[in-house]
Amino acid sequence: MLLSAVAGAAAGGAVAYLVLRDHTPAATGPAMISARVAPASLDNFEPAEGAAQAAAALAPSVVTVVNHLESNGGSAGPTDQGSRASGSGVIISDQGHVITNAHVVEGSQRLEVVLADGTSLPASLVGSDTFSDLAVIKIEPGAAPTAVFGDSDALMAGDTVIAIGSPLGDLTNTVTVGVVSAKDRSLETSSGFQMEGLLQTDAAINSGNSGGPLVSLRGEVVGINTLVVRGSALSGASAEGLGFAIPSNTVKAIAEQLIASGQVTRPYLGIRWEWITPALAAANGLELSYGAYVTAVNSGSPAAEAGLRTGDVVVGMDGTRFDGDSPFLNQLLTHAPGETVTLEVKRGTSEVQLYVTLTERPSL
Q1: Between the CA of residue 20 and those of 187, 209, 211, what are the distances in Å?
Q2: Neighbours of 232 (CB within 10 A)
């Protein structure tokens, strides 16, 4: 989720990244977004054991999303000659809701979904959110099994994960295996805002994998693949094995809002920040174990009006101190635009309280 941005979380501060979209007319089948998260009943769910079993358990829920792009003339009717983009998705409810990336369905004239067995179905767009790069589409109910979500907060660096998707559009249900390389990564996109709280993985993901699931060895969806970094824009150095996914807990929260209203309304504070962890604090000799270190304050933002400064460390909100279970972003997202929150701020050797009236996150 993108309420503010964490500066410097990616190596070198600037990266050249590739959004995992494929523009080859390789796959067919209708798909559009409409979403609603399935009930969290696991009565009949048995965890998988091993990568092969986990991939086999989830594969029937993974789909290819085909975006028939708008023609240059802006025609609203279907066309057989327009270009196509393709990505991946996963079915998240027995009502036919599918989660994918927002950039996969961007500029669509019509959408198609191709199931794992090759069946093509029409889809409709329920809602899309650029900041989180998530969208929900809907196909006919009961067309394929529903995936089960896992708890992304429980992941640790080194945990084995599996990426499933349709690289290049036609290599459907491709399975690659890697590990969680890191958590809580932030990357600046080409649109000028930052995606936050991402999972980093070395599981191979390529064009067409966008929107596909990152899966735990239990066969549960723990993330939605969104982009891959190919190198540093500053140094020119190339890189491999730097894939990024949106954590499943974020995906569920966004999907529920998209299904309910077709859009996501999020509070806006107007800062860029870095999350301080115990390991980071120890490495830098900091006295704090947790907190949001403010690296920039946007002019005219609620934070600026409240007096928040670059170099401040926000250590709590409304009397709740931040820790591993109550991080800054999660606490902020419990509030709505228009609410006033109290920030506990460490400023030098002093601690001050600031009262901030949140606004709605500006649109792009």
Answers
A1: 15, 6, 9
A2: 17
Gap between the Cα atoms of 348 and 158, Å rounded = 36
Candidate list 34, 103, 132, 216, residue with the active-site label: 103
* Catalytic annotation present for 103: yes
| Same domain, residue pair 275 and 343 | yes
Total domains in the fold of the chain: 2
For the question of whether the overall pTM of this predicted structure is more than 0.90, the answer is no
Question: Residue 147 corresponds to which tokens in the numbers above?
Answer: 């995936």
Burial of 320 (C-beta count, 10 Å sphere; 0-12/13-18/19+): exposed
For residue range 79-95, what is the model confidence (pLDDT) as tens digits?
333 588 899 999 999 99
Per-residue pLDDT, 33 = 28
Closest CA to 144 of 112, 110, 101, 114: 114
Is 272 contained in some domain?
yes
| φ, ψ of residue 152 in degrees (nearest 5) | -65, -25
pLDDT tens, residue by residue, 64-121: 999 998 764 443 333 333 588 899 999 999 999 999 999 999 999 999 999 999 999 9
The H-assigned helical ranges of 31-182 are 51-58, 102-105
Alpha-carbon distance 313 to 285, whole Å?
A: 15
Would you state the structure tokens that stand for residue 227, as one six-digit string? Answer: 């982009």
Catalytic residue among 166, 207, 210, 301: 210
**105 CA to centre of own chain:** 15
Start-to-end CA distance of the chain, whole Å, equals 14
Task: Name the pLDDT band for 278 (thresholds 50, 70, 90).
Answer: confident
Q: Cβ contacts of residue 325 below 8 Å, gap of 6+?
A: none
CATH number of the domain encompassing residue 304: 2.30.42.10
- Based on the residue annotation, tell me whether 210 is a catalytic residue of this protein: yes
Q: Which one, of 25, 118, 125, lies nearest residue 66 by Cα? A: 25
Asked whether residue 33 is domain-assigned, the answer is no
CATH number at residue 156: 2.40.10.10
Task: Among 193, 218, 249, identify where a domain stops.
Answer: 249
Q: Looking at 22, 129, 133, 312, which residue is catalytic?
A: 133
Q: Do 291 and 242 fall within a single domain?
A: no
